[in-house]
Amino acid sequence: MRKISVCVLFGGISPEHPVSLRSAESVLNQMDPEKYNLFPVGITREGKWLLYGGTDYSLLPDGSWERHPDNCEATISPIRGQGLLQFRDGAVTSSWIDVVFPVLHGENGEDGAMQGLLQMAGIAYVGSHVATSAVAMDKTLTKLVMDRAGIPQAKWLLVRASDLASNMEGAVRAVEERFSYPCFVKPAGTGSSVGVSKAKDRESLEKALLCAGQYDEKILVEEFIHGREIEVAVMGNRNPVASVCGEIDSGAEFYDYEAKYVSDTSVAYIPARISQSVAEQVRELAVKAYREMDCKGLSRVDFFVTYADDRIVFNEINTLPGFTSISMYPKLFAASGIAYSDLIDKLLQLALEA
Fold first, then answer.
1. Which positions ≥6 away from 258 have C-beta within 8 Å?
2. Which one, 184, 260, 270, 333, has least CB within 10 Å?
3. In this predicted model, what pLDDT tens digit does every residue of 226-270 receive, in sequence order?
4. pTM for this one?
5. Tens digit of each residue's pLDDT (9 = 90 or more) over 292-346
6. In degrees, to the nearest 5, what angle opens at C-alpha 15 toward C-alphas 114 and 267?
7. Are 220 and 298 spatial neighbours (Cβ–Cβ below 8 Å)?
8. Whole-angstrom Cα distance, residue 105 to residue 13?
9. What backbone phi and psi angles, to 5 degrees, belong to 75?
């Protein structure tokens, strides 16, 4: 059989650049070179595209891959049929690409921008298409979809970062009229808990709003839900399937960036410590949210299950979840009987089908 040519995109200009590098290291190490012709293309923090000339993917996380002597500048051509263009020694060559795996997080990676380029190029790619990617990246737009679908979620409020300089008092008053402390403050368009804060009083709320405003014009404020953090991996196109439920015990104030990727305080429980009946309800809601968003390929859907009465509350959906060695998406499907390398095979096949 002819090998499938796969371009794995990683890096990017978003604050989630380091997470992408770690995800790509794991993905590339799990891809069978007997099945795939691999084209690992990294995007530096400055936005430069480089075809990585090495095969040692352990160089990705610390950024040293950028200095490999066999690198060359490269890009996906928006002209159909040209594939991956490579620029070396004053000459341009092209390589056919069957499918792209955008192991990218955040701005220009999972917000529809890269998906639009790939659709113009006529290249299959892993994950949801343009509209779904854009809506899912904006937490406030996702909230509107879930409201319309009748999926229970936390109360929320939109605050504009541009209003804070002139009317911080008004923004704080609007939050305090709607919520009691503590509450959560998030940039609408980041993942990996970048810029997320837990506000316990007026002073910390002001700091949280300013922090979130550094990442996005739209700031989401949500009520605090006292419950377990439950995650479900979903995979598929027309007939999506849900993994077993997993639970995150952050071991910290909340599951922030440091708890996810830096410290060793967080603990994952797979399966989650909830009853079978509640788990089935969570899985059904995860598939419903996936369908309502018109997701393709994969997504991780996150919920809270309250301690007091097992009430299920939607938190968010991530259309390109982390794929690091400790990420929940591959671990959840591993617990459901699908090994990491087989999971990648299935996602690439779903991309070609879509």
1. 252
2. 270
3. 999 999 999 999 999 999 999 999 765 655 555 554 546 689 999
4. 0.91
5. 999 999 999 999 999 999 999 999 999 999 998 889 999 999 999 999 999 999 9
6. 110
7. no
8. 9
9. -160, 155
